[in-house]
What we know:
Chain A is of the alpha+beta class and 74 residues long. Chain A has one helix at residues 29-36; strands at 2-7, 20-22, 45-48, 51-52, 64-68.
Amino acid sequence: MQIQVSCYATLSPYTPREGLVDMDSGSTPGDLIQHLGIPMEEVKIIFVNGKSADPSTPLNDQDRVGIFPAVGGG
Amino acid sequence: MHPSGLVQDLARHSHALEDYPFACIQDVHLLELARKYNIQPWQAQINALENQVCPERYIRNYKTMSLEMQLDLARSSVLVVGAGGLGGYVIELLVRSGAGRLTVADGDVFELSNLNRQILGTSDLTGKPKAEAARQRAMDINPFARVETCGTYLQPDDLPGLLPGTDLVLDCLGGVEFRQELLQAAKDHQRPLVTGFVAGNTGLASTVFPGDLSPEAFWQADRDQGAEITLGNVAYTVSMIATLQAREAIHILTRQAPCLRNRVFLADMHTCSFQSLEL
C-alpha cells in the first residue's frame, strides 16, 4: 500500500522522495517510522489523515501521515 | 459608575463620523477627560465605550468588531508569558486592537541573536529587559492600555497569584520548558490558554480550555531537545503563529468562537501549506 508522508522540523530530511512510500499491508505508523530510519525517541506525535494517532494503529492505503519531533520555540 | 459630568463631557468632546452608528473621540480629548476626572486612561476608555463613544483609533476594527466586542476587549485582562518572538507580536496585535489589560512576564534581556525576529528588540535595547520593552512599546502604541510587568522568569509558585486576575493566558514561551506547568496551572484555575510553538519553517498554535485535549505531546522533551535548538526561529514563522494566537485570544475575549480547541494549527512555511489538525 502507498502512504503519503510528511516529516516536520528536524525530521523533515526523513520525508521520502515525492512524499510517498510503499509499505506492506497492515503496517503501522511505528513500522513506517522504523522504515524511514527515524529514531523512535525523537518522534513526539503522529497525525494520520489530519488526526492525532497511535503509532500502533494499522494504516490504510493512501493514508496521509505527519510525523513531528519536540517543538517549543518562540 | 461614571464620575458625575463625565457622560456629558464625553458627548461634548466626541463627534459623529459618516457611516458609523456611534460617536468617536480622539485620544487627546479622552486623555484630557481622564485627567479632569482623575481616572486612569484605561478606565476612561471603558467609560467611553459604555456610553457608545468609540476611541477613534479603533474605528477600523468596525464592523469586524462591534462596539460591544470593543468594550469586552477593553475590559479584558490577559497574561502574556514570554515577550520574545511570539510574545512581542502578540502584544503588538492585542494592544493595537484595544485589549485593556496585559500582564507581561519575561525575565530575559535582548541579545543580538533575538533581533532577526523579535519585534520588541532593537539595536539600542540589546542587554535591556524584554518585559520593560513590552511595556514601553505598548504605551507608545496605545495610552489606553494597562500594562503590568513581571521582569523575572515565572515559577510555578507565581501562577496562583497571577491567574485569578486574568481572563486568558497566552503561552509565548521560548523552548519546551515550563509550558506543561503553565498549561496545568491554567487548567487548575479554569482559564483558557492559547499556545504557540515554532522551530524553523514549522509553526504550531492551539487553544486549550480546561478539559480540552492539548498539544503537550510536542513538549515532552528535555529543554535542550526542542527542534528550535537545531533549526533556529525565523521571523515569518514566528509572526504567523503569533497572529493566530492573537486571533484566538481576541475571539475568546469578545465571546466569539475560537477555532483551535482540540486542534493544532500547523503552518508549514517550507511548502506554504496550512492545516488544522485534530488532537
